[in-house]
């Protein structure tokens, strides 16, 4: 009986030890799984945020490295309020978000004594913004035209250019007129310079156009005029 009791006690002890071990493993797994669901900005960062003291005016983020390509052991994150967070390990940041939905974008290269500045961006939102910017840039390009005239332009070419100017203005385009001296061409006379300037201004006025901004440059050398038809 003592032998049976001993076996029973041993079995109970082993069972208790096994259950304790399983509970311990479950606790570790649960804690580990929680880390993956913590908001990316909060991983390993102090609650106290620092004001972002470096410029983030980079329009070409896509030219800077992302994720592992950043290469630095530590980075500093910019949160949603544009505050600069304390340095944190790059590996820790990369492990804090789902790479299928987010990515880490470097926005400032940093310095020898300062780690790179980065942002965690949403892939879908970033692509949508890029498409919107590309669309706006394309629309802006379509709405603007550019014409170049030589000060010593002959009568036939001048008539052709003024015809183009008329067409563009009537279609609602903003036209940038570049009046300049071309290399290898003769220098224009004072009368020719005056004639070209007056012809451009008269044509613009006849169409109901006006200068969008002041004239840039010096007549006879290089002048830029930006004109548009008034609504």
Automatic annotation (TrEMBL):
Gene Ontology terms: biological process: mitochondrial translational initiation; ribosome disassembly
Annotated PANTHER family: TRANSLATION INITIATION FACTOR IF-3, TRANSLATION INITIATION FACTOR IF-3, MITOCHONDRIAL
Pfam families assigned: IF3_N
InterPro entries xref list: T_IF-3_C_sf, T_IF-3_N_sf, Translation_initiation_fac_3, Translation_initiation_fac_3_N
Lineage: Eukaryota, Fungi, Dikarya, Ascomycota, Pezizomycotina
Leader peptide range in chain numbering: none
Alphabetical keyword list: Initiation factor, Protein biosynthesis
Family, per entry: Belongs to the IF-3 family.
Domain Translation initiation factor 3 N-terminal per the UniProt entry, residue ranges: 66-137
UniProt GO MF annotations: ribosome binding; translation initiation factor activity
Protein name per UniProt: Translation initiation factor 3 N-terminal domain-containing protein
The UniProt record lists the keyword Protease: no
Organism for this UniProt entry: Penicillium decumbens
Cellular component aspect of the GO annotation: mitochondrion
């Amino acid at each position: 009986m003592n032998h049976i009791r001993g076996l029973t006690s041993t079995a109970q002890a082993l069972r208790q030890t096994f259950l304790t071990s399983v509970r311990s493993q479950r606790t570790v797994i649960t804690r580990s799984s929680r880390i993956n669901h913590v908001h990316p900005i909060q991983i390993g960062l102090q609650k106290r945020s620092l004001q972002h003291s470096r410029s983030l005016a980079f329009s070409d983020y896509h030219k800077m490295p992302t994720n592992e390509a950043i290469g630095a052991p530590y980075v500093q994150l910019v949160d949603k309020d544009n505050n600069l967070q304390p340095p944190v390990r790059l590996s820790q940041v990369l492990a804090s978000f789902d790479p299928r939905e987010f990515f880490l974008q470097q926005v400032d290269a940093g310095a020898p004594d300062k780690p790179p500045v980065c942002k965690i961006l949403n892939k879908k939102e970033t692509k949508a913004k890029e498409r919107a910017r590309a669309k706006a840039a394309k629309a802006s390009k379509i709405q603007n035209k550019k014409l170049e005239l030589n000060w010593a332009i002959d009568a036939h070419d001048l008539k052709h250019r003024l015809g183009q100017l008329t067409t563009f203005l009537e279609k609602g385009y903003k036209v940038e007129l570049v009046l300049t001296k071309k290399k290898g061409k003769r220098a224009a006379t004072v009368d020719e310079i005056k004639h070209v300037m007056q012809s451009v201004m008269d044509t613009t006025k006849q169409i109901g156009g006006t200068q969008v901004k002041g004239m840039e440059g010096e007549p006879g050398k290089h002048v830029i005029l930006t004109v548009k038809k008034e609504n």
